[in-house]
Write a structure and sequence with these properties.
It catalyses: ATP + protein L-histidine = ADP + protein N-phospho-L-histidine. This is histidine kinase. Keywords: ATP-binding, Kinase, Membrane, Nucleotide-binding, Phosphoprotein, Transferase, Transmembrane, Transmembrane helix, Two-component regulatory system. By secondary structure, this protein is α+β, with helices and mostly antiparallel strands. It has three domains: 194 residues, no CATH class; 86 residues; 118 residues, Histidine kinase-like ATPase, C-terminal domain (Heat Shock Protein 90, 2-Layer Sandwich). Helix content is 68%, strand content 9%. The chain has eleven helices and seven strands. α2 packs antiparallel against α3 and α3 packs across α6.
Length: 413
């Protein structure tokens, strides 16, 4: 019982305060329109409008916290600070999905807040009025007596107490039943308008994951470059020095036989094999030519070494993330290897351009076509490399050719 009365008090206070705030909120659309139109008055609106939207955010956020407190929910605080610069502020308020939710809340608060607040005021006000009016029935003129339950006049203490008790009990029951439900309905509508929808949350989550993935790939690329430098400048240099010393030792001993000579020969050959394997590992981790000549120079080197004449068409690429640059290099390298081994082509063409936030790589040959991704042609490896960057691979290879491999790699978060 006590808990129910506490809910009624909270709900009544919520709705009775929500009534005047809903009435004040009816002015918000006019204020926003006036702030937007004031841009024509010497550009005043350029400064005023973002601040008006920020003020709306604070107004809506206050109601959001009230609604969450009534429903005993936890809500995270929203950012209410404006950036620096007029252009940044306009971009912030126009691109922020929360701005549209705030505007949506304005109309929902007006439509639900005014009727719910008036209903609560009628229920609670009638109970309070009846209590006071019943005790002061004798102050009413005899020709216009106090009337309770809508039509029954009060003529004495008996009728006053009887009719007053019935009216108080009726509206108390109505308040008991209706006010908490009206308050919960209004609060839930308020949160529904201001909280992001499931689709908005999914979009925000995808954006966060995309940004974090881009950061991880950049960090991974930087780490690969560091390891490549360490192996190239440290481990490989030491192997070269060891191989040279072993070679000098073999020269000093001559070409004689014996256990020591055999051990030196095996150690020398093993060191040279280790250097060869290490160079291959370094090349597959992060090709040094990318660091030296960039993607354009690296692709040109691949074309020069290809067993098929290759035409190169490179657009303005700008600065690319390390992971994207490396992936593009290996895609071209694997594609040209496939062309030389399997296509029987006489000409190939590599085209790399940048369109907005994507890097487009296209490799075409005039070979026999009919690429089978399951036949060990390396296309599956390319597809996995592209998928790791959330890219897209399209292979067009009808029998008889030509074969076109088109890749789109996102280069921005």
């Amino acid at each position: 019982m006590r808990e129910q009365w506490r809910k009624i008090r909270r709900a009544s206070g919520y709705l009775l305060l929500g009534l005047p705030t809903a009435m004040l909120t009816t002015m918000v659309p006019l204020l926003l329109v006036a702030a937007a139109l004031s841009t024509g008055l010497g550009g005043i609106g350029l400064v005023v409008f973002p601040r008006a939207v920020s003020g709306l955010r604070r107004w809506a956020e206050w109601h959001r916290r009230r609604a969450a407190a009534l429903l005993d929910r936890q809500v995270s605080a929203r950012d209410m600070t404006l950036g620096r610069g007029i252009r940044a502020q306009w971009r912030q308020v126009l691109d922020d999905p929360g701005t549209r939710r705030d505007v949506r809340w304005v109309f929902r608060h007006i439509v639900t807040g005014v009727p719910a607040g008036m209903a609560a005021m009628f229920c609670v006000g009638t109970v309070v009025f009846t209590v006071f009016a019943t005790s002061l029935w004798w102050l009413f003129p005899s020709d216009t007596p106090l009337r309770l339950l809508g039509a029954f006049p009060v003529t004495g203490w008996g009728s006053a107490l009887a009719l007053g008790a019935v009216q108080v009990a009726s509206f108390a029951v109505l308040t008991w039943w209706a006010v908490p439900r009206l308050a919960a309905f209004h609060a839930s509508r308020c949160l529904a308008a201001l909280e992001p929808s499931a689709e908005d949350l999914l979009t925000e989550r995808v954006g966060e994951l995309t940004e974090s993935r881009a950061g991880v790939l950049d960090a991974h690329g930087a780490e690969l470059r560091r390891i490549e430098r360490d192996l190239h400048d440290g481990t490989q240099a030491r192997l070269v020095a060891i191989a040279m010393r072993l070679g000098v030792a073999r020269e000093s001993l001559g070409d004689g036989t014996g256990d020591l000579s055999d051990l030196l020969r095996e150690a020398h050959e093993g060191a040279e094999e280790a250097m060869t394997e290490l160079r291959e590992v370094i090349r597959t981790m992060y090709p040094p030519i990318l660091a030296d000549r960039g993607l354009s120079g690296a692709v040109a080197a691949l074309a020069a070494r290809s067993g098929v004449p290759v035409e190169i068409d490179l657009g303005e690429l700008g600065r690319l993330p390390t992971a994207v640059e490396t992936a593009a290099y290996f895609i071209v390298a694997e594609s040209l290897t496939n062309v030389a081994k399997h296509s029987a082509a006489t000409q190939a063409r590599v085209r790399i351009t940048r369109a907005g936030g994507s890097l487009l790589v296209e490799v075409t040959d005039d070979g026999i076509g009919g690429v089978d991704e399951t036949g060990g042609t390396g296309v599956m490896g390319i597809r996995r490399r592209v998928a790791a960057l959330d890219g897209e691979l399209v292979v067009s290879s009808p029998p008889g050719g030509p074969t076109t491999l088109s890749v789109e790699l996102p280069c921005e978060s």
